[in-house]
Amino acid sequence: MRFDEKVVIVTGGALGIGQATGEILAERGAAVAILDWDDGAGFKACEKIREAGGKAVFERVNVANFQEVSAAVKKVKDVFGKVNSLVVSAGIQRYGTAVSTNEDQWEEVLNVNLKGAWNAARAVIPFLQEQGGGTIVNVSSVQALASQQNVLAYTVSKHGLLGLTRSMAMDFAKENIRANAVCPGTVDTPMLKWAASLDQNPQSVYDACNAMHPLGRIAQPREIAEVVAFLAHESSSFVTGAVWTVDGGLLTQIGGVPQTDAV
Ligand SMILES: NC(=O)c1ccc[n+]([C@@H]2O[C@H](COP(=O)([O-])OP(=O)(O)OC[C@H]3O[C@@H](n4cnc5c(N)ncnc54)[C@H](O)[C@@H]3O)[C@@H](O)[C@H]2O)c1
Predict the structure, then answer these.
(1) What are phi and psi of 159, to 5 degrees?
(2) 263 belongs to a structural domain
């Protein structure tokens, strides 16, 4: 799966799943543009790609701000001459129920996770149209298909991301623009480290996450990035509007433990 001559924009590409995606695409020949609000991590991620012989640029944006995203996407087009693919990995997690989530948290999560994806898509799609097609891959979550307790805004945003993905797949299919979503289970990234740090015993969070996946472990970022790369590549040319779980079997199992010796 080579990406020679391809230009790919990765939001949230400074860390975690987005960073791994940028690395894989660059290793396979793509010019990668990282759009992220973390300058330090963003420049480091770029440096790492360049040191390995790849092409990468960094643009600082808050994905919730369309003007910033649009200006960054135009710069990428100026630098690399075109845009072929968009990967949306920027996201944040906040905790709360329908009652305990406050307006600020709701807006923060929805603005980054959902509006941020729309912002990136509406900035990039005109450039994909110029190229006669392209791909969009949104990193959603298993929480787009099910939920846990106390993650209302996040769950809503990730469900919404599937709606965004499917709408775009329908609207732009005739122009050979494919939009797909991946729904990871738990992944070993800075986001998970942050979530675990909220617990008195962070290791117990990792242990519980490992145990709840039928494969017996959480994912490494590159295991998600490999699927993202496939969906961004022409090898997946007949896949659009699809939602792919990449969850170590998490959503396959029936919950609960039967109390019988027979199983
Ligand atoms: N880690 C997991 O277990 C897991 C599981 C399922 C889905 N996801 C989703 O995968 C995506 C990537 O998650 P991750 O675990 O790599 O997270 P991460 O926190 O490790 O990385 C997220 C990146 O997004 C950037 N970002 C966040 N808000 C931004 C904003 N407003 N503007 C620009 N950049 C911003 C961060 O700076 C960071 O570089 C997220 O959408 C997340 O919801 C993660």
Answers:
(1) -65, -45
(2) no
- The pLDDT of residue 261 is 72
DSSP one-letter code for 58: E
Please report whether residue 186 resides in a domain: yes
Judge if the beta carbon of residue 17 lies within 6 A of ligand 1. yes
The domain in which residue 72 lies consists of 7-250
Q: Is residue 259 part of a domain?
A: no
Q: Is the pLDDT of residue 262 over 70?
A: no
Ligand 1 lined by 42 (C-beta under 6 Å): no
Residues 18/12, Cβ–Cβ less than 8 Å: yes
The CATH number that applies at residue 190 is 3.40.50.720
Confidence band, pLDDT 50/70/90 cuts, at residue 215:
very high
How far, in Å, from the CA of 148 to the mean position of ligand 1?
Answer: 18
Q: What is the pTM of this model?
A: 0.97
